[in-house]
Design a protein that fits this description.
The complex is a heterodimer of chains A (about 220) and B (about 270).
Chain A (H helix, E strand, L loop, with lengths): L3 E3 L3 H25 L5 H6 L2 H25 L1 H11 L4 H4 L1 H9 L14 H25 L1 H7 L4 H31 L7 H5 L2 E3 H7 L1 H13 L1
Antiparallel strand pairs in A: 1-2
Helix pairs in contact in A: 1-3, 3-4, 7-9, 11-12
Chain B lengths: L3 E6 L8 H10 L24 E8 L5 E8 L8 H5 L5 E3 L5 E3 L9 H5 L6 E7 L2 E7 L5 H4 L6 H5 L5 E5 H15 L7 E3 L9 E5 L16 H35 L10
Parallel strand pairs in B: 1-10
Antiparallel strand pairs in B: 1-8, 2-3, 4-5, 6-7, 9-10
Chain lengths: ~220, ~270
C-alpha cells in the first residue's frame, strides 16, 4: 500500500456531505412538482404539506454548509474558489482525454491541479445552480415579503419560477455525472476516500492530480 | 354544444351584493370577516369569497361623481396561466369553457396564485404548527349548476340583469349594442374580453378603463410561464435523460473495456 496523502479537511468533508444530503432531500421533495411520475414521493413524506415543509426548511439547511465552511475553514473555501476559476491550457486539454476515459478507454490526460478540470466544471455548475436555487427559492417562498415590504415587482417573483426550474434541471444533470464518477467509474472511484476519510493514496494523487502532486505533495512526503 | 358565456354589464349593476350572497350560499363558502374598508365588503376575492362587488369612486370631467360597481370573480381565461403553471394537472377547462380546480389533485404549491393575471385564485391554508395544508380555490362558474341545466348562482340572483349567462354570439352582440347605448354617458366605456389571454368566458362591459377597476389593461400569459413550462422543464427532463444515458453507457463500456484489467494500469 502506498503512502496516504492529505486531501480534504474535516470541515470540508462535513460541509460536503451536509450539502449532498440536503441537496438530495430537496431534490426528492421537489421532484413531484417537476414531474407527475414522482407523485408517490408525497406519500413517502405523508402528504404534499409535509414534503413542502421539508423542502422549505431543508432549503434553509442547504445554505448552512457555505456559512459553516466560511466560519470554520475559510482557507479551504478560498483555495477551492481560486482553483475553480483558474483555467489554463492543461485544464482545457483535460476534456479530450476525459471523453475516452469516461467510457473506459485509456487516454493521456495532462497533469491536473488539486481539482482537475472536470471537478472544476462540476464545482462551477454546482455553485452557480445552488446560488440560483437559493435566490429563486427565497423569492418564491417569501414572495409577499419581497413585493409588499421590499417593493419588488411581481415580474421579478415570476422570474424566480423558471430560474428554479432551470437550475433544478441543470444541477441534477451535473449531480448524476458527479455521483457516477465517485462511486461508479472504476478509475475515479478511489477519490471517494478523499471525501470520506480526507486522504487518498500517493499513487492516485500522482495519476489524477499530477500538477498538484509535483508542486505540493512530492516534497512534503519526502520530508 | 352551444357556446355559452357570462356577460357582465357593470352599468346596470346597482351594487346590491345579491350575487355575493347567492355565491356563498350555493358554494357553501364560510363567512369571512375582514376589517372595515368602507362600503366594499372585502378587499379582493379569496379562497372563501369567490365573488366580490367592488366600489370605485371616480370624478367626472364635469365635476360630478361616478360610483362604479363591478362584479369581480374569475374571468375564466381561454389561455389560463393558472392552468399552464399548475404542477399537478389539477386545473383544467371544463366542457363549459370554464376553468376549474380539482381539489383532490391540488397540492397547494401556489404557482397559480402567483401567475393569475387577475389575482383571482387564492389558497385556503390550514396551519398545523409550521406545516401548512393548502389548496387553491376560486369560482367554477357554478359548474355543478350548469350540469343541472341551471344558471350560475350569481346570474340567477342578479335582479338588475347586470349578470347574464347565455349564448356566446348573442351576448357578444348584445355587448356591442350596450356599448353604443352607454357611450354618451360613459365615454371611456369598453368591452373587456382581453386577447392576451385568448379571451375570457366572462365578458365585461366596463364603464371606464380597465385600470380604473383595478384590472390589467392588457393581461397576458406571463413570458416567464412560457419559458418555464414550454422550454425549461421539457429541456431539463431531456437533459436528465441524456446524462443518465451517458452514465449508463459509461458503466457498460467500462465493464467491457476493463475486463480483467481492474481499472487503470497505474493504480
Amino acid at each position: 500500500m502506498s503512502k496516504q496523502v492529505k486531501r480534504f479537511s474535516k470541515p470540508v468533508i462535513l460541509a460536503h456531505w451536509l450539502n449532498a444530503f440536503t441537496f438530495m432531500l430537496l431534490y426528492f421533495t421537489g421532484l413531484p412538482l417537476y414531474s407527475e411520475w414522482f407523485d408517490w414521493v408525497y406519500v413517502l413524506f405523508g402528504g404534499p404539506e409535509n414534503a413542502r415543509f421539508v423542502h422549505h426548511y431543508g432549503g434553509l439547511v442547504f445554505i448552512l454548509p457555505t456559512v459553516f465552511i466560511l466560519l470554520v475553514d475559510a482557507k479551504s473555501f478560498t483555495h477551492w474558489m481560486k482553483q475553480i476559476f483558474s483555467w489554463k491550457a492543461h485544464d482545457f486539454a483535460f476534456f479530450k482525454g476525459f471523453a475516452k476515459e469516461f467510457f473506459g478507454l485509456h487516454a493521456d490526460i495532462p497533469k491536473q491541479d488539486f481539482y482537475n478540470a472536470g471537478e472544476k466544471i462540476n464545482s462551477l455548475l454546482q455553485v452557480f445552480t445552488a446560488f440560483l436555487l437559493i435566490v429563486s427559492g427565497l423569492l418564491m417562498w417569501f414572495a409577499d415579503f419581497f413585493t409588499t415590504t421590499l417593493g419588488f415587482s411581481q415580474s421579478i417573483i415570476l422570474l424566480a419560477y423558471p430560474m428554479h426550474s432551470i437550475a433544478f434541471g441543470l444541477s441534477v444533470a451535473v449531480v448524476v455525472g458527479h455521483v457516477y464518477l465517485s462511486i461508479g467509474h472504476p478509475n475515479s472511484r478511489p477519490s471517494m476516500q478523499g471525501i470520506l476519510k480526507g486522504y487518498i493514496s500517493e499513487d492516485y494523487a500522482k495519476a489524477h492530480h499530477g500538477k498538484w502532486y509535483d508542486e505540493e505533495v512530492k516534497d512534503n512526503l519526502k520530508m | 354544444m352551444e357556446k355559452m358565456i357570462k356577460f357582465v354589464d357593470v352599468t346596470l349593476c346597482d351594487g346590491c351584493r345579491g350575487c355575493m350572497v347567492a355565491c356563498k350560499n350555493w358554494n357553501d363558502l364560510p363567512i369571512e370577516i375582514e376589517e372595515f374598508h368602507g362600503v366594499q365588503s372585502h378587499a379582493n376575492v379569496t379562497a372563501n369569497t369567490w365573488n366580490v362587488i367592488t366600489y370605485t369612486e371616480v370624478e367626472r370631467k364635469d365635476g360630478g361623481l361616478d360610483w362604479l360597481f363591478r362584479h369581480a370573480s374569475c374571468l375564466h381565461c381561454k389561455e389560463a396561466s393558472c392552468e399552464k403553471v399548475c404542477s399537478e394537472d389539477a386545473i383544467s377547462h371544463s366542457k363549459y369553457d370554464t376553468v376549474v380546480v380539482d381539489e383532490d389533485k391540488c397540492v397547494g404549491c401556489g404557482y397559480c396564485v402567483e401567475y393569475c393575471p387577475f389575482d383571482v385564485i387564492q389558497l385556503k391554508t390550514l396551519k398545523d404548527g409550521l406545516v401548512e395544508k393548502r389548496k387553491a380555490y376560486k369560482c367554477t362558474m357554478c359548474i355543478d349548476r350548469l350540469d343541472q341545466g341551471l344558471q350560475p348562482a350569481c346570474a340567477t340572483a342578479c335582479h338588475a340583469g347586470s349578470i347574464v349567462y347565455g349564448n356566446k354570439e348573442e351576448l357578444l352582440a348584445k355587448a356591442e349594442t350596450r356599448l353604443q347605448d352607454v357611450k354618451d354617458r360613459f365615454p371611456n366605456a369598453n368591452i373587456y374580453n382581453p386577447k392576451g389571454v385568448g379571451g375570457t368566458n366572462t365578458v365585461y362591459l366596463l364603464a371606464d378603463k380597465p385600470s380604473v377597476y383595478g384590472l390589467p389593461e392588457s393581461p397576458k400569459v406571463p413570458t416567464s410561464a412560457v419559458v418555464w413550462k414550454d422550454y425549461a422543464q421539457p429541456l431539463g427532463k431531456a437533459l436528465l435523460g441524456v446524462t443518465t444515458m451517458a452514465v449508463v453507457g459509461a458503466a457498460i463500456s467500462n465493464a467491457i473495456n476493463n475486463k480483467g484489467d481492474g481499472g487503470h494500469g497505474h493504480e
